[in-house]
Amino acid sequence: MGAYVTGTANSYADLLAALQTACTANGYTLTGNVLSKGTLFIEAKVVGSTLQIQGGSGQAGGVLSGRSNAQPSIIGLTVVTASPIVNHPIVFPVTYDIHINAAPDEVYLWINYEATCYQYLAFGQSDQPGLVGTGNWYYGTAGTNTNGSSWDFRTIGGGNTVGQSFNCGLFDALTSYYAGVGGIDHQLDAAGNWSGYYSASDRWPVQQNSPSAWNGESVLSPIIVYAARPSSLFSQVLQTRHLRWVMLDNLTDGQIVTLGPDRWKMYPLWRRSARTLGPTPDGQGTGTLGYAVRYNGP
Predict the structure, then answer these.
(1) What are the sequence ranges of the domains in the chain?
(2) Residue 106 forms beta bridges with which residues?
């Protein structure tokens, strides 16, 4: 079961209200700024020129507890710097799409502005067995500690984001670097550990050969997140059940595709540009890599 809500927002406050209304209409409880469902707790609030979320493990009187040790995630990519330049900051009004899915719980908020630009916030709960923590997770287009010199879309093709570079991809960046854009409450090896590892290694063997040269169709591949372990090996901590990677070469932004009993809606990482499996020019686009989210709309 799930829900889909779309509309227009004229401010970050409008976006927050739309998110809260959609969630509370579909099984979530709002206490203060905290949205909760079962053991899933997410704080959502407007902070300056951003809409910000951060995960926790509980709440008391609307105050989030067990707060993530990873930075909050935001919609609010508006920084313009010389190195590199983000040439498409958010301009209101924006169109928003909210996808709410259950079993397990996953919520995706996308905004679309200037026709071709997209930003997102997402949160949910992992159903991966063996986690010590709640499995709560959250991600966004940017992180609150990403500074001006870090706005960098050149790593989309390679998927690995380190140092001062920035990656807007959902589940695509290390939370331990400047580019970290979210976290997952796995608590493996250390109490309170929300750090994750990028998910690109599984993606590219499939997506570099998509769409099919035979019929032009793109493969929807799973999104899997790992945690680095002291053994120098990795443990799977999340596989999204309602979101997939997809190459958009022969698909349009917002297109709805039916596969068997499921329908999926297509979104670019940020702003589509020419297909590439390597770095993209500073601040331009994010190639044709995108997402397919389970669609429950009309």
Answers:
(1) 2-294
(2) 101, 124
